[in-house]
Design a protein that fits this description.
heterodimer, A: mainly alpha, MetI-like fold, about 75% helix, flat, B: alpha/beta, Rossmann fold, four-stranded antiparallel β-sheet, 9 helices, globular, binds adenosine-5'-triphosphate, binds magnesium ion
Chain lengths: ~280, ~280
């Protein structure tokens, strides 16, 4: 948010107050609360008026009550916490594996002509496939345990990291390369002291996309391959037509997703302090 | 090549082999360059001899091959033909005794100013040596008027300050030759004049040999012992103009008739030779 310049001096006829339209002046918390209230209000009216059946869309009240219920279950460490823990592990392992493979492939593709010529075309080819369609394969190969979900989550999250890393390595300008050459820098020194730091903004962009898709991968895996995670809870609740439960479970999952995304943004803020960009969602 | 002005005042009757009186630092003989990629014939038969402590400039239209020549001299790209010898050794790659500066300062934003300055040391001799170089780096910062900015990040420096920090980075390895590719052309005229005088002072105090690429005729004249006028397509040296103004040069000299005559002469050569 831009700070408004305030008049600090009296008695000067050239100190004037800049006019900002009221819609641009609303403080963030107020604006967010307002949108939330409008959203819940419409939701309430729609469900109360009986436009839609409660099985399709529960009322805000029901959903809130179920949120509290699920929250209690989570806090008291009952079966939902165990399920959340399963999903969290899938996401964490999947993200870790995606980062390892993603950085390695990204460096090979971004740094070597071989990688760019011989590996990148295949990566692009795989990336254009609907990756969720690989889920049955992973389940066939790795079983119904968490391994197949980790694999799918990692598979989906790897590509944005590869692309971000490779693009980041290409972002160093000709002057910086020439400067490193005049200093007699080795290839590794050029990579670690110049190209990687220069590419960090793009690398983090890739990581942010990955942090969002890794959760989608884990939950898709659970939908298709069963197991004991949160995705399974959602699936069961929806077969029981327990729509409020589906809603509240999704909301808790989105909290996890936001936490992961927020962590990546926080790390980016710390490590890429010199790059002042307006990150979407960066104000989390 | 013709030599219109004698190097030493009053020595016009001496033979033109002026550089024999100095130690030769740079020797380019028959250097040509054709870029294989687009078959551009960028340089043709360049012969240059730079004496120790001399200041030379090269001036020519855009695209005539000045940066190419500088890159060949620095060992960044190989010539297609010819020989480049620096301090008795052929140049076949980057060299410690060369300091280079470009139009952009190219400071790295994740490093503080002083960390940027000691980067060449860090790359060649490691982190410990770089840390040990902080003291001389601070002295250099003081020399260029940036005392107290050692911990500032490049984003906190103005364009001229960043360029001064880049000078420090070039000087930290104490190079014998400075290759300068339009180092101050992004700066405003006042800052540029000031930086040029700084550059002269630094070169004189270190007895460094400097080779400057510039688009500004007055800048070339005020700084140089010799100005090389380049002709394009293929790039070759059309004329070697010896500037026999006394040293140290000051900005006042710009108004003298002699300065004006030299500038006019070079401008005439450029008009005739390089622009179509
Ligand atoms: N890496 C390259 N590959 C192919 N051709 C190049 C390359 N670099 C320069 N050239 C060509 O060589 C010629 C000379 O370029 P150079 O950069 O040396 O010019 P310059 O005199 O420095 O120009 P300017 O004053 O605009 O900086 C140009 O015609 C350019 O197209
Ligand atoms: Mg150039």
């Amino acid at each position: 948010m831009t700070q408004k310049d305030h008049a600090q001096e009296r008695g000067s006829d050239t100190v004037w107050i800049e006019q900002v339209a009221w819609i641009d002046r609303v403080p963030r918390p107020v604006a967010m609360a307002f949108v939330f209230a409008v959203f819940v209000g419409i939701w309430h009216i729609v469900t109360q008026a009986g436009f839609v059946s409660p099985i399709i869309l529960p009322t805000p009240g029901e959903t809130f009550a179920d949120l509290v219920l699920v929250g209690r279950n989570l806090i008291s460490g009952e079966y939902m916490l165990a399920a959340l823990w399963v999903t969290l592990r899938e996401v964490a392992y999947g993200f870790a594996i995606a980062m390892m493979i993603g950085f390695s492939l990204g460096i090979i593709v971004g740094e070597t002509a071989f990688g760019e010529r011989a590996i990148m075309p295949y990566l692009v080819a795989i990336d254009t496939m609907p990756k969720v369609a690989f889920a049955p394969l992973f389940i066939a190969w790795l079983g119904f345990g968490i391994e197949s979900k980790v694999a799918l989550a990692a598979f989906i999250a790897t590509f944005p990291i590869v692309v971000g890393t490779a693009a980041g390595l290409h972002s160093a300008d000709a002057n910086a390369r020439m400067l490193f050459k005049t200093m007699g820098a080795s290839r590794l020194q050029t990579l670690f002291k110049m190209k990687l730091p220069t590419g960090l903004p793009q690398i983090f962009t890739g990581l942010k996309i990955a942090s969002v898709s890794v959760m989608a991968g884990a939950i898709t895996g659970e939908f298709l391959g069963g197991g004991r995670g949160f995705g399974e809870l959602i699936r069961v609740a929806s077969t029981q037509l327990n729509t409020p439960r589906v809603f509240s479970l999704i909301i808790y999952l989105s909290l996890v997703g936001m936490a992961l995304f927020g962590t990546v943004v926080w790390i980016q803020r710390r490590f890429v302090f010199w790059h002042k960009e307006r990150v979407v969602g960066g104000d989390l | 090549m013709e030599c219109q002005y004698p190097l030493m005042p009053g020595s016009a009757t001496m033979p033109v082999a002026t550089n024999t009186s100095h130690d030769v630092v740079y020797q380019l003989s028959g250097v040509s360059k054709t870029y294989a990629r687009n078959a551009v014939h960028a340089l043709e038969d360049i012969n240059l001899t730079l004496g120790k402590g001399s200041f030379s400039s090269i001036i020519g239209s855009s695209g005539c091959g000045k940066s190419t020549l500088l890159k060949i001299m620095a060992g960044l790209i190989p010539p297609s033909r010819g020989r480049v010898v620096l301090q008795g050794r052929p140049v076949t790659g980057s060299r410690r005794d060369i300091g280079m500066m470009f139009q952009q300062a190219t400071l790295f934003p994740w490093r503080t100013t002083i960390e940027n300055i000691v980067l060449p040391i860090e790359i060649r001799d490691g982190k410990a040596a770089a840390l040990a170089a902080h003291e001389p780096a601070r002295a250099l910062l003081e020399l260029v008027g940036l005392k107290g900015f050692d911990k500032a990040y490049p984003s906190e420096l103005s364009g001229g300050m960043a360029q001064r920090a880049a000078i420090c980075r070039m000087l930290i390895t104490e190079p014998a030759v400075l290759l300068l590719d339009e180092p101050f052309s992004a700066l405003d005229e006042l800052t540029r004049d000031f930086m040029n005088m700084e550059l002269q002072r630094i070169c004189t105090s270190r007895n460094a040999t400097a080779f400057l690429v510039t688009h500004s005729i007055p800048e070339a004249v005020i700084l140089s012992d010799v100005v090389y006028v380049m002709k394009p397509r293929p790039g070759r040296i059309a004329e070697e103009v010896v500037i026999d103004l006394p040293r140290p040069r000051t900005l006042d000299m710009i108004t003298t008739p002699k300065f004006g005559a030299l500038v006019e002469h070079i401008r005439g050569r450029l008009d005739k030779e390089t622009f179509i």
